[in-house]
Write a structure and sequence with these properties.
Elements (H helix, E strand, L loop, with lengths): L8 H5 L3 H18 L6 H5 L9 H21 L3 H4 L17 H19 L7 E2 L7 E2 H27 L2
Antiparallel strand pairs: 1-2
C-alpha cells in the first residue's frame, strides 16, 4: 500500500507546523483509503483476525474517527446527531450496503469535512466537544497521526495476507 508523499520532505520541513501536520495527515488518509484499491468486495470484507477488523472496516472506522475528532470535538454535536456509532468498536461493523466505492467516498467526504472544520483554528486553540474535556487542536492532530499510522500498518498487513498466494 505504498503511496507517494503529497509533498517532498524538503517542501514540508521548511513550512509552519500546521502545514506539516496537514501534509502528514493527508498522506496517511490517502494511504489508508488506497489500501482498498484493486481488491474485490469479498477481499475487502475478508476477516483474517479475531476482531472485527477487515480492510473495509478499517476505512469505515477511520471515517468514524474523523467525525469524532473533527466534528464532535470541534462542534460539540453528539454522536447520534452526527450519525456515527456510540463506540469505536461498533464503527467497524459493515452493513450489507457498504461497498469499496461507498466507504472510500464516505471517507474522502469525512476527510474534507475535517479539513474545513479545522481550517479556522490554530494548533493551540482548544476544542471542547471531546469526552476527555478541552484539548488543543495540536493534540487532536497528534492523536490522529498516531491512529492513522497504526491503521495504515494494520492495512498493509491485511492487504499482504489477502493478496499473498
Amino acid at each position: 500500500m505504498t503511496s507517494q508523499p503529497a509533498t517532498s520532505a524538503d517542501d514540508v520541513t521548511h513550512q509552519p507546523a500546521r502545514v506539516q501536520f496537514d501534509a502528514f495527515l493527508d498522506e496517511h488518509r490517502a494511504g489508508l483509503n488506497d489500501s482498498l484499491n484493486g481488491l474485490t468486495e469479498e477481499q475487502a470484507r475478508r476477516s483474517l483476525v479475531p476482531s472485527r477488523t477487515t480492510l473495509l472496516g478499517l476505512v469505515k472506522h477511520a471515517t468514524f474517527v474523523e467525525k469524532v475528532w473533527f466534528d464532535e470535538a470541534i462542534t460539540c454535536r453528539p454522536r447520534d446527531e452526527i450519525g456515527i456509532p456510540a463506540t469505536p468498536d461498533d464503527s467497524f461493523i459493515l452493513d450489507d450496503g457498504d461497498t469499496i466505492v461507498s466507504i472510500q467516498q464516505a471517507y474522502r467526504e469525512a476527510c474534507e469535512a475535517s479539513r474545513l472544520a479545522a481550517a479556522s483554528l490554530e494548533l493551540d486553540d482548544l476544542v471542547h466537544g471531546n469526552r476527555r474535556g478541552p484539548l488543543p487542536l495540536r493534540w487532536v492532530y497528534l492523536h490522529m497521526l498516531r491512529e492513522l499510522a497504526q491503521h495504515c500498518g494494520h492495512a498493509d498487513i491485511l492487504r499482504e495476507l489477502i493478496l499473498s498466494p
